[in-house]
Each structure stands twice: as C-alpha cells, then as structure tokens.
Write a structure and sequence with these properties.
The chain has 355 residues and is an alpha+beta fold. The chain has two domains: 194 residues, Orthogonal Bundle (Neutral Protease, domain 2); 123 residues, Galactose-binding domain-like (Jelly Rolls). Helices cover 28% and strands 24% of the residues. It is built from eight helices and eleven strands. Strands 1, 2, 3, 4, 5, 6 and 7 form a seven-stranded antiparallel sheet that branches. The longest helix has 21 residues. Bound molecules: zinc ion.
Length: 355
C-alpha cells in the first residue's frame, strides 16, 4: 500500500537549495561495522543477519560460492580483536561450510588466515589490531554460503546491527549512476539505527529489506512506500549532493504507516525532522516567521517538531510516530503530550522565530 507515503518530495524543488555539508561526526564510545559480500543475498537472508547477536537469523547466498567469494565484516576503525567465533549453516544443520577459513586483516585490504573451519564452526584467539574479518571458502562449494553469526570480543566494543537492513539497488535505467548510488545506499543503511530508534514503537519491527530504484521516467524527486524507494535519474544526476532526500525516503519506509486519514504534513514533517535535525543538522535554513505555520509540511513542520521537542518533551517525535503508526493520532495528542493545543504551540514557535 502506498497511501500517504507516496506523497513525493517534489515540494523540495520549489525551495531554495541549501548546501548540505557533511555533519561533524559525534564522538562515539563504540565502533560501528559494515558487512559486505561478493555474493548476492538469497530469500531475505540479509548480510547484517550474520552480525545481529541473534543466532536464529543468518546470511544466505543465492549461489554456491567459489574460492574467490567472501563475507567480510569491516570495522570503521581498527580494534583490538581478542577473539572471534563464527557459526555457519542453517538452524536445521543444512549448508554448513565444509571448506573454508576465517581471515583477518589489519588494514581491511590484505588478509591472512586465522583459523580453519571444522564442522562449520571456527574460533580463534587473535589478540591484535584488526580492521576486518572475513569468511572465505577454500574450495568451490556445492551449497550456498550460510553464516549465522560472527561473535567477536573486541576493545573498544563493536556494535552489532540492532535493526538489520539491506538495500538492494536497481540502476537499470542509468547504470552509470551505480557507484554514486551505492554510496547513497550505504549512507541510508548507516543511518538506519538512528531512524529506527527515533521511530521505535512497541512490537514494531522495521523492514529488513528496502529496494531503491532510479527511474528515467520518474518526474518527481523521490518517493517511498511498501519498502520501496524510487528516485529520479534526472534529478539526482543534477543534484548528486542531495543524499538527504534519500534519508528522508528511508524514514518513510520505517514510518510504515498504514492507518487512513493521517495528516500528510506530519508524515512529511517527521521524515524531514529525521533528515534536517538528525542526519544533517543545521542545514534546514531559516524560516520566515510571518509565513511559518506548523502544518506547512516538510522542513517547516520539522522545525515545529524540533521546537516543541526541545521545549516540552525530548521524546515527542517518538511518541507522535507511535500514535501515527498505531492509527491513534488526533489533534488532542498535542494537548496530552505538552499541555498546550497545537495552535498555542504554533504561536510560541512563531514567536521564537522572530529575532
Ligand atoms: Zn516525503
């Protein structure tokens, strides 16, 4: 169902273009990782399932690997790898890795063997600085590569994928965009935990697969719905810096609202709040206090959300999202959450814009 989420971001075209500098990375007490493979995923068994601290989920390849294939976990920076264990094969015991090695790399480029798989499992004490670990078959296999879990003991800690996701890319209409589009997909995957935390609600599991397609025949900027994002070849060729537009669409995929009659301004306002207040803060530009209105949608509504969240409830967006997703949103929510009506909040916000 595309319902409200198919509302496109074409509106952004009517606004002045704002520079989108890369935000300064916040200091992180832990290290993040990425997981890549030469093999394509089969049947929704995505790569991140191999590093999600859940042995019930697993990565599975769609073809039988050869000696040149791999599944590689790369850390954002080198960490001291004390030990590593990898379990392969499906939970029912099928497709364990018969011929393979666990390899480690200090720089993410040159790998050396750390241990050999036996009965589909491996453990190794390493005790040195490592940037990447990978599973590599040592023969052409007669079964797909199935990796259930990497378990690592490192200093500092590397975080597992709390919201496993994999974007698949379709650039059939513009193959020359592939390199750029792959970077965009990596950005969206990297932002996924932030988006999913902000838009969490009880019992909700965000989609684990999102398909991003660039179409020559699509005349908007981008749209999203049902785990699919469509972007315009023409627009993104002339605005390659507008990665934030795809973070906005990724937020729509996580919103996953299905209730009828939800206010479109709030759907778009939350998506632009993700983009302009979390992904690239400080880039939304200034608003005209004379014309600003809470329900003007997109970044204007996002600014309103940021104001109310800052003044009344830092969890405001998370709470509003939960109400929207559960079909329980009404205008009374503002009074319940802040003690003020939305009109009163609108006045306070507009006053705050006057300088
Ligand atoms: Zn949108």
């Amino acid at each position: 169902m595309r319902t409200l989420l198919s509302v496109s971001a074409t509106f952004l075209l009517a606004l002045p273009t704002f520079a989108a500098p890369t935000p300064a990375p916040a200091p992180r007490p832990v290290v993040q990782a990425a997981i890549e493979s030469s093999l394509t995923t089969a049947g929704g068994r995505i790569r991140q399932f191999a590093f999600d601290a859940d042995p019930a989920t697993y990565f599975a390849s769609d073809r039988n690997p050869t000696k040149t294939d791999h599944l590689t976990l790369t850390f954002d920076r080198p960490v001291t790898l004390k030990s590593v264990a990898v379990v392969t094969g499906r939970p029912n015991g099928d497709d364990v890795l018969t011929d393979g090695v666990l390899e480690v790399s200090a720089d993410g480029a040159a790998f050396e063997s750390a241990a050999t798989f036996e009965k589909g499992k491996v453990t190794a004490d390493v005790g040195r600085s490592v940037k990447a670990v990978r599973v590599r078959p040592t023969a052409d296999l007669k079964a797909p590569l199935v990796v259930r879990e990497f378990t690592i003991n490192t200093d500092p800690r590397v975080v597992t994928f709390r919201y496993p996701v994999e974007f698949t890319l379709d650039v059939t209409d513009a193959p020359e965009m592939r390199e750029w589009a792959e970077k965009v997909v990596r950005v969206c995957e990297r932002q996924y935990p932030m988006i999913c935390d902000l838009l969490a609600s009880e019992g909700f599991r965000p989609p684990a697969q999102i398909r991003m397609t660039f179409r020559a025949s699509y005349n908007g900027v981008a749209e999203a719905g049902g785990g699919r994002i469509t972007g315009s070849v023409k627009y993104f060729k002339s605005h390659p810096e507008d990665v934030g537009a795809m973070v906005h669409e990724t937020a729509h995929c996580v919103q996953n609202y299905r209730a009828r009659g939800l206010p479109g301004w709030l759907v778009e306002g939350i998506a632009d709040y993700v983009r302009f207040w979390k992904f690239e803060p400080g880039t939304a530009g200034r608003l005209n206090p004379e014309r600003a209105k809470f329900d003007a949608s997109y970044r204007t509504s996002a600014a309103f959300l940021a104001f109310v969240a800052g003044k009344y409830d830092s969890q405001l967006v998370t709470k509003l999202n939960a109400l929207m997703r559960e079909g329980k949103y009404s205008v009374e929510a503002w009074k319940t959450l802040t003690g003020k009506t939305v009109e009163e909040l609108n006045q306070e916000w507009r006053q705050s814009l006057v300088r």
